[in-house]
Amino acid sequence: MKRMAANLTLSVVAFVSCLVLTEMFFRFNARQGWISPKEAEIAPLNTNFPKEERLPKTVLQDVQRRYADFQRPNEDIADKLSHFPNNKQTSTPIWAADLARRFEQFPDIREIHNRMINLTHNRVIYNAYYGMDHRGRRRLPHQEISKYKPNMIFVGCSFTFGTGVNDAYTMPTFMKHRYPEYNVYNLGIPAGGLNDSLDDIVHKKRLEDINDQGGVVIYSFIYDHLERTFCSLNCYREERRSWALRKSDYDFDKEGKLVNLGRHDTSNPYKAFFYSILAKSAFLDFIGFEKSKKFGVEDEKKFVRLLLELKKFYENQGYDFYFYPVGGARELTETLTQELRQHGVKLKIYDTSSIHEWKERGVIAGDGHLNELGNYLLAAQIHQMLLAFPPKTSTVQSSK
């Protein structure tokens, strides 16, 4: 019996020692770069893609006419910087969920300079100025708000906000050109998730001065919104924890009522403790463990259930609610698509192969956000969705 206990102790010690030595090796490797880390493999979220509709030829013709001379990104630089380990953003942090509160505290802030550089190659990736209003919303150039017009509200993350481009080249600005009969509001938050949009309807700080004419709300979706909303191990890694863990953790109580459990780093102390330890592992980081996470069916159903709370709020205010996947079918799983359609969420999934070459030109090299061309293309796709499901408040069917 003693011999068995001794052997067991020896095995445990040997196992723990191997773990410690392995972790030490990969910590040194992270500094010295002896072995290149495994890149996170981003598998298709959905192998049974939902049926896509082809974009009308007029979209391609319009882009060809408007952006014929638009230069393709420097592919060599884009390849070198594709994972941007040495990119540094030089700006006031603007991805916090409390944008409105911050702008109440510092009302004189009306413009943010956001400059992204790559330290290794000493290259400016983007250099943009963001005009902001007193509610922490991104401004649209030359827009005069009318209390008599209906509203077009865009919610989402950096693809809605327009990270990396000046005010004149964001997707909401291009939509304003197409729909001058609306007041257009950009409620995008860089690194935002669905929980940030829920914060807006719970606290209402960024909605208080919007008139009661109703209109249109468009939620721009990428799959990473699930990560930001539910926070798996990825949120606890160094590159995310400073902003992701500050986000609200929303759930439903026994009566099915939406509740805010607090910040992700405090709502579940046991999960936070366990994940905080795992997130520091150099070995798990090296093998790309959970760096590209596909959430389970129940999480995806819960995400749609939370989205329906957003939809219900805006529809009660007289808005038509729309959902648009920025990356098309590749952003959606079969579960998400079925749940959204089953609950009557207006969405379109377009086959963008006809404009594929233009979409490649529409990305900021070394970053991944959309440039002027990319935002124009996104606006064109959302415009087609609105033509397919005309809002009750629209009086002009623009073909621009």
Automatic annotation (TrEMBL):
Note the superkingdom of the native organism: Bacteria
Name assigned to this protein: SGNH/GDSL hydrolase family protein
